[in-house]
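Quick question: what would this complex look like in 3D?
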Amino acid sequence: MDDLPDEDGTEKLEVWCAGEEWCPVTTTASLIGKKWHPVIVHRLLEHGPSGFNELQENVDGISSKVLSDSLEDLEDNQLVEREIISEKPFRVHYSLTEYGESLQPVIYAMRDWGMQYLNEPDDGSAA
Amino acid sequence: MDDLPDEDGTEKLEVWCAGEEWCPVTTTASLIGKKWHPVIVHRLLEHGPSGFNELQENVDGISSKVLSDSLEDLEDNQLVEREIISEKPFRVHYSLTEYGESLQPVIYAMRDWGMQYLNEPDDGSAA
DNA sequence: CTGAATCCTAAAGGATACTG
DNA sequence: CAGTATCCTTTAGGATTCAG
């Protein structure tokens, strides 16, 4: 609770997140709040430009349809860029745009928190 | 790429995110990757313990069913705690557990990124 | 007021097969 | 290799109503 100064800054906060599309938290959630999006971005952050199957291997479990769909959505939001690097043996590279790269703090925060969560003894006490 | 020291930690990274449930990024995504969860947590971070309707007002747009459902899910994952503070005029307080509080960096990272995204001129150049 | 129950729709996620 | 096309199941999200 150290975020807001006081005065007018505070009321703005009221407006953001009680609103429609323009809540920054919801905005981010809308863009990467899908099941596989954060992992895909994470993989691209770690591995750099990747081919389709390479990406599919790294994400595992994901079907080509879902991966394709997710990538399309990420492209649509300018988070991911698709580059055809070879025509004959058709090859493609998916990479992060600057928008996508800028997600690093978010993804890493999610990763760090997830690690912490996974390491917790899950406390046996009553919920 | 400053995430892991080296040793066994690094190779673990490969394994984590090609795996099942135990990918920290996916774990976090599973817990707060729903449409309204981040906003709810954000509201609770900003406002502290809140009543049901108060929360609904703050989140806006959300229906009581979805809010109730979301809160139940958050409770189930020990991110939110529900406390009955009055029986006669039935009143309840929802607040963050320590798990929930620990999400602050994630939520704020999302908020900050969202703000940045919203402020971008959306670049008129080709996608 | 708090919030659970019901019902419904849209969309996400997934399995499989097929194409350029 | 890099997807698309179908079809199907699950679930998230939402409107409304009901109950404590």
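Answer marked as accepted. Chain B touches chain A through 56 residues (CB under 8 Å).
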